[in-house]
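Bench log, entry 3. Co-assembly request; chain sequences pasted below exactly as received.
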Amino acid sequence: MFVLFISFSVCNGQVIKAEKILFETGIAGDATPVLVERILKADKNPISEIKFEKGTYHFYPDKGFEKFCYLSNHGDLMVNTPFPILNMENLTIDGQGSTFIFHGVVIPFLIADSKNIIVKNLSIDWQDPFYSEGLIVANDEKNKTFDMKISEEYPYDIRNGQIFFIKEYYQHSLGQSILYNPKRRAITFNTEVYTPITTKSKTSKTFNLDKIQYKYEYDKRDLGFKNIGFEYGITVEELEPGLVRVYGHKKEMPPVGHILTMKGEQGLNRVAPAFSVAHTIGFSAKNINVHHAGGMGMIAENSEDLILDNFNVTPSQGRMVSTTADATHFVGCRGKVVLKNCTFENQLDDASNIHGTYQKIVDVLDEYRIGVRMGHHQQKAFVIGQPNDHLGFVRLSNSFFPYNKTTIKNIAYINNRYQIITLNEKLPQDVQPGDLVENLDGYPDLLVQNCIIRNNRARGLLISNPVNTVIENNFFSTEMEAILMPVESGHWYESGNATNVIIRDNVFQDCQHSGFNRGVIRFDTDDDNENIAFKDISIINNTFNHFDNLILEVTNTDGLKFTNNTITHSGTFPLLYPSNPAVRIAYSKNMNIDKNIFKGKEKTDLLLEIDGSMSNLK
Amino acid sequence: MFVLFISFSVCNGQVIKAEKILFETGIAGDATPVLVERILKADKNPISEIKFEKGTYHFYPDKGFEKFCYLSNHGDLMVNTPFPILNMENLTIDGQGSTFIFHGVVIPFLIADSKNIIVKNLSIDWQDPFYSEGLIVANDEKNKTFDMKISEEYPYDIRNGQIFFIKEYYQHSLGQSILYNPKRRAITFNTEVYTPITTKSKTSKTFNLDKIQYKYEYDKRDLGFKNIGFEYGITVEELEPGLVRVYGHKKEMPPVGHILTMKGEQGLNRVAPAFSVAHTIGFSAKNINVHHAGGMGMIAENSEDLILDNFNVTPSQGRMVSTTADATHFVGCRGKVVLKNCTFENQLDDASNIHGTYQKIVDVLDEYRIGVRMGHHQQKAFVIGQPNDHLGFVRLSNSFFPYNKTTIKNIAYINNRYQIITLNEKLPQDVQPGDLVENLDGYPDLLVQNCIIRNNRARGLLISNPVNTVIENNFFSTEMEAILMPVESGHWYESGNATNVIIRDNVFQDCQHSGFNRGVIRFDTDDDNENIAFKDISIINNTFNHFDNLILEVTNTDGLKFTNNTITHSGTFPLLYPSNPAVRIAYSKNMNIDKNIFKGKEKTDLLLEIDGSMSNLK
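Structure output for the full assembly:
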């Protein structure tokens, strides 16, 4: 380690000395201990820059700095990091083109309660991936079996007929799975016919389970409950070392030559995101390759002004998969959120998901205080806001927009499911247990620009953002929706509707090809009513080169401009839903669908389908 | 809640107002939220006393205060408590005879970083126990099966041939098990012939596991590794609701009429001790009944001056089992540790275990700093001492006593397996990675007096204490050793030898009856050499009423007085090891065995057996 030089800055009238440090490749065998040692001293001996001599550096968990992390949409766990960027300011980490290889369950960059952090010019990869691949080499539709060849990179054992893939410091069951077509290096066409593998089924042998009483609402989907009454529905037999036969799968047998990617049981399989950014103002990642992560490429929570520029999630080492969850994900973030010049490919969930959080009022404690419950187990411990943030009160059965709002005085954290929010003003008189709250200040100005999003499982962009959203000049080729804008309450408790959305100059190539009957762009609500959820949406000048019919699916919208788009028929795959229209609209008003060029194969009377009560359709 | 009155005290020249609070039975439905709310305000609004109107109070986890707890010899977990006694001073909690019923995974009393805490006059129980019972109703030695009747109190499901017992907020597999004889309400005689049930066996189907490389030492017994290559060796079939047959057990079939107690898998089954006391000076528990806990009755760590008086661990509701682990356990405690007038019965581990911790030196970082590794996964995160404590350097192959000592300057916690200790003085020149350190100040003056210890699994007292130990006027009837004094390094990393031990005026009734060939009182080392481990031991004026021969087993001892003891033959059970002597001594010196009264049945030439090089035997 070399101190390159010491810079000076002035903060609150005090001169701050901050070191610029260069780490050389001498530490590459395990860079973790020296990094941790130096970073932990930064409170007394500040650092403005950490540079790495260009090289390949390994990072092991054994001497990493430990922190218990509640991470949205990940498992919650005690985890290690070599970069504990906690309560730091004005720090740049520059890999100068280095590759960082991580080992085991670690979070490479754990950034919290910090300001102005820049990470640039480096690639992140893992020695062993948090998923495994099986090449389908035979199948037997009559006997309902299929055979997989497992390469030497994926050690396993078989216990009582279940396969477990063993990694350095990690293991996973078959669990969640999806097929890849190695020729396209993308999700197999119509994969929903074959996957996911049906690993669990109900057990008939239960005794007196109904005698167990719970005083309060509990979450049957949480880890402590989800396996009650369920057992493995498949069995795995080893035919020879590295060749296994799977029995009991209930969908169609997966086709020979395709690759089954398996990442273990839901709830256990997101443990090592590449970047965690929380309660941080100003974060920038530039020229970054995330080749893999056991979770997301980046999970950002309660943060402000986040810019990802040439931040690429893309697989390495011949693997089908990059990250095992979303490429990026933003919860309760504000200010600017920018994704530009990025490639998000081959990850096992959305390219990005941007939303807030609904929390359920379970106790009205007095005129100023409510007890709230975290609805989804992957939102445990999420703190909804900071003092003086605007808190909206929502009753989704009445409206997708808040019926009242007030401001937060403070929040007392009791446990990961329960917090007490004290307000500056008195509670609305009509507040009821069961109502939801959302943070109205916890949404960003969102820009997604010049990005390539392809070959991943799930959506491109999943956005619940009532502030401003611009999606322009991107390329999409996703197995589900390219863009999904939901209002969702009952399952994920991800808050936010959509207003002021501009989707322009994008190319959509053969999205939604995995078998679902849904549009390439879709607006959707959980609640089946006519209330307005989405406002002021512009979809203009885009190109849809699509194998199937349904391009746009709209519901509960006030103000949609769908103009100057070009729709062509790709012929890449057979049509899945030939009776679909190109555009489907329900419970909406002030629609303007005009000046689009249609070169598709469908009959013209299928171009537009309208359900529900409609007015002001142009 | 009523504030009874406000007391005043003077601390550092400041007058401190502290409230005395009475909680009435109106809160009994779930006493947790009001308690948590009030206790969390205690930093600004101090409390000197919390009293409860006599009654039965329930405590649920849903609104309990959350803390991540690393607990010695327990699982490490994020857990809730209704009594977060953290950084408090001079507090008395008085149940006035109340019963506290806990629900799920909670720690009733979580006491840390506090001073002068008194808890008295209350009983602790759980709605659902953390173990389950099966009454053996049939067995078939030929087909190697046995049948269990499961009562309605123990809901279960069976998944892929494995039984899981489902509780409120908890579940466990069959896992660790032992037989109880319901007539004696004690561990079945010779239970080692039947139990533990052999639940796991090696799987033959592994692929490329040897390709996984670890850069550093790792713990194969830790949860992330222990199941690799192992599968369930038994299967369970439901014959009718509440009646199950177990196949595949490899020991003898358990006898009809006995009760199999099952507490789930080791490493997962200690999650809710009744009392956790850590880094606390002055703790007293008086007139307490711990009827149950999912772990220990009390686990105390790094604390000072602890007095348990009439602290009784004893089952309720007709259950065979009280706590599922030790009744009490003290790690790294100093000052006085007193257990007096206590009953410890029917717990599934020792009545008390008192020891320090060995940590392994893995890095010599510079002249003043060492990196140490926590050896056992249930010692994770244990901090070995505080500044200026004496740290002993130990190389057990050379000596059971430290070869050098120095003092701690500070300890940097990196993660639960790795800490960096900085010393005030330079390291010994001959220190080597692999050497152990122990805290020489982390042992107590121990008094165990007027206690009844019986009907539990495992030992009575397991003591590694080089300071002072007095064990007097107690009654023991345990299935393993009544008193075991070990020097142990390779498995549990529990430090401490034994010096200045007085064992007097106790009654030992039919201990060591579960099948092991060991003495009622035993001194033992892991390392097979002639070095002295134990010094100045007095065993005087005790009564041993024993069914078998071997009373005292001594090794590596310098200075033993075994005098004025009375040994009688109980006839309670058949002899297990008729060729044993009454006293077995090896590698010891300065032995004084005199004036004992022997009324046993053994031939007189079996009274004393001496192995190894001996001198100064009187």
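Chain B touches chain A through 65 residues (CB under 8 Å). Residues 2-128+269-349 of chain B form a domain with the Pectate Lyase C-like fold (CATH 2.160.20).
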